[in-house]
Amino acid sequence: MIELTSLTKRYGSTMAVDELSCTVHSGLVTGFLGPNGAGKSTTMRMILGLDHPTRGEARIDGKPYAEHRHPLRKVGALLDARAVHGGRKARDHLLCLAQSNGIASSRVEEVLDLVGLAEVARRRVGGFSLGMSQRLGIAAAMLGDPEILIFDEPVNGLDPEGILWIRTLMRDLAAEGRTVLVSSHLMSEMAQTADHLIVIGRGRLIADTRMDTFIGGSSQRYVRVRGPRLARLAELLGDGRDGARVERHDDHLRVTGTTAAAVGESASAAGLTLHELATVEPTLEAAYMELTQDITEFAGVTA
Ligand SMILES: Nc1ncnc2c1ncn2[C@@H]1O[C@H](COP(=O)(O)OP(=O)(O)OP(=O)(O)O)[C@@H](O)[C@H]1O
């Protein structure tokens, strides 16, 4: 479990993280979202003791990172996959990490196998693709078999097979009861991976909720309607009888505030033919855009 209490980081006049309080629970994949510059990486760095908070604290299973006797066995992290010295061979990099953290060298072979890098373990890291570097970073994070994993943009540079692999890995780690905190800008990917979301904007907490609650709370669910007499349909559906609102698009209508069944019945009663009638469910991307747009507008008004 990771607990943040009034966590704050100021760089000069920039409030990178502002009074952030939340808990990242075990047994779940928690997605960490926010626009560019929202403070996600800074928060992760403070959890890992790489940056000192201006105020507040980050605790991992009750203690700051630095107070854990073998931190790599408690928390594994992938922050910047390119941070490894390019002249080093992959296996040597992991061996060095294992030795300095009291981890058996046999574990190096295990994690190389786990991430699919066993064949290239003797190659220099400088020649690795971004995807291979990401896999090496994940191997390093898994080295201490930690209960808590923190991944900053882990799918960056991975091909579709690699993306599927890491999604499965994260879901399996959470199913084993571990705590998984992951940031990503890929909303469709996050929607398939995370159970819970923490969203920040301008360093502040703006949502801390289950994925389904977050998406379900969006107002973006609508009924998509197509037919040969769109103008007549728009008139019929938009007369405000049932609180429905109609938006006209090129070849279809988007109707909110009603159901597909009600739209179908109205059309049928008026003798109008429909070519398409579908409920379009809200997506994480739509819910996220709606929320962060409000925050930006709100910040703009008050600035
Ligand atoms: N070392 C630093 N010195 C000064 N300002 C910094 C430093 N690190 C981060 N910042 C600023 O703090 C804010 C938060 O940055 P951070 O990298 O944590 O955001 P982020 O949410 O991870 O962004 P991204 O999605 O673009 O990676 C930004 O305004 C950034 O410019």
Automatic annotation (TrEMBL):
Q: Residues in domain ABC transporter?
A: 2-227
Q: What is this protein called?
A: ABC transporter ATP-binding protein
GO terms (molecular function) for this protein are:
ATP binding
UniProtKB keywords: ATP-binding, Nucleotide-binding, Transport
Q: Which SMART domains does this entry report, sorted A to Z?
A: AAA
* Classification via Gene3D superfamilies: P-loop containing nucleotide triphosphate hydrolases (3.40.50.300)
Similarity comment: family membership: Belongs to the ABC transporter superfamily.
Q: Say yes or no: keyword ATP-binding present.
A: yes
Q: Name one Pfam family in it.
A: ABC_tran
